[in-house]
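Section handout, structural biology tutorial.
Before the tutorial, make sure you can parse a SMILES string by hand: atoms, branches in parentheses, ring closures as digits. In the record below the ligand is pyridoxal-5'-phosphate, and the chain has 390 residues. In the tutorial you will relate the predicted structure tokens back to the input. Do not try to memorize them.
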Amino acid sequence: MIPYGRHHLDAEDIAAVVDILSGKQLTQGPMIDAFEEAVATYVGARHAVAVSSGTAALHLAAMAAGVGPGRRLVTSPITFVASANAALYCGGSVGFADIDPATVNMSPEALEQTLAAHPDTAAVIPVHFGGLPCDMEAIARIARARGAMVIEDAAHALGARQGDGTPVGSCTQSDMTCFSFHPVKAIAAGEGGMITTNDTALYRRLIRIRSHGINKLDDPFQAPEAAVENGQPNPWYYEMQELGYHYRITDIQCALALSQMKKLDSFIARRRALARSYDAAFADFAHLRPAQPEGRDQSGLHIYVVRIDFAAIGKTRGDVMRALRARGIGSQVHYIPVPIQPHYAALGFGPSDCPAAMAYYDQALSIPLFYDLTDAQQAEVITALRDIVG
Ligand SMILES: *Cc1c(COP(=O)(O)O)cnc(C)c1O
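Predicted structure of the complex:
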């Protein structure tokens, strides 16, 4: 079976984890700082905060951006539900800015309209869908003009580069960027996430709310008299200064992720080469085309999505997925538009919030793309699609 995506682990990764298991600290040890530093250096951001998942990263970032009761978060309808759920975790509300069909990323024009309709917006979360960077300059300009913070959902985009060549995560056009290290993403930690930022005040807050709201960065204590005795710090003393969460990551996970970071560029290079081969092979298909044909050199190529005109071939998407499966080939749909998920429908959202996303969803299918996909396997996928889709 060829899955649509899969992680790649080698002996070095396994040894890195075993090393931690035979050491003294399983969590809250040195691997977390080392991994944070590796990612901050790689993307060119001042600060990085590692957390237990990409979802936790989005939740904390939304909270730090001021999303909450009466303060909205606006994101793309074509994303994993976690991008929108971050608002609900904070007690805030959600808005959607429809996609640009040419990129499948948030459309700046749609964002302008959504923000005009929702002056209560505290944060905008563009999603670099499939690893293709959004038009951050336009999105940031529109969001800032309305006083909203910008949080990049870069769960697909570690290793991607913006149009100006700066790495995604450098936060040159945003306040914070969130990554995920779920195994299907660019690098694997088992589970894990990261927030990068250049803003030291946001960084200090993120560190605090990652761990129960307890002050750990020797910020001023609120009861300094309890913290000190005769000029000597009281060794037991700490303060919980606001309600935070337990979203810490472990040293075991960070050791794996740190080892994987060394291979990130080769992972991305292989994904880009495979994507170009698919692009070339599909050029003469009548009813199938790549969903994101532009920016192959910039994209992290987390997934390879094709758009199939199912009406024209007289088959449903289910038919095509089952036929692929019968030939040992996995496929997936990224994503069902968030506004039509039952939980969001119950909040009053629906297809009319995102017509472009609905048209995309009607045709989308993700086909196998991962580092270990061989040329021969890719040829099998192409042949199968030629037979099934015509
Ligand atoms: C995977 C993903 C997330 C959530 O990351 P987890 O690490 O699984 O919590 C958020 N947004 C997008 C776009 C994702 O693909």
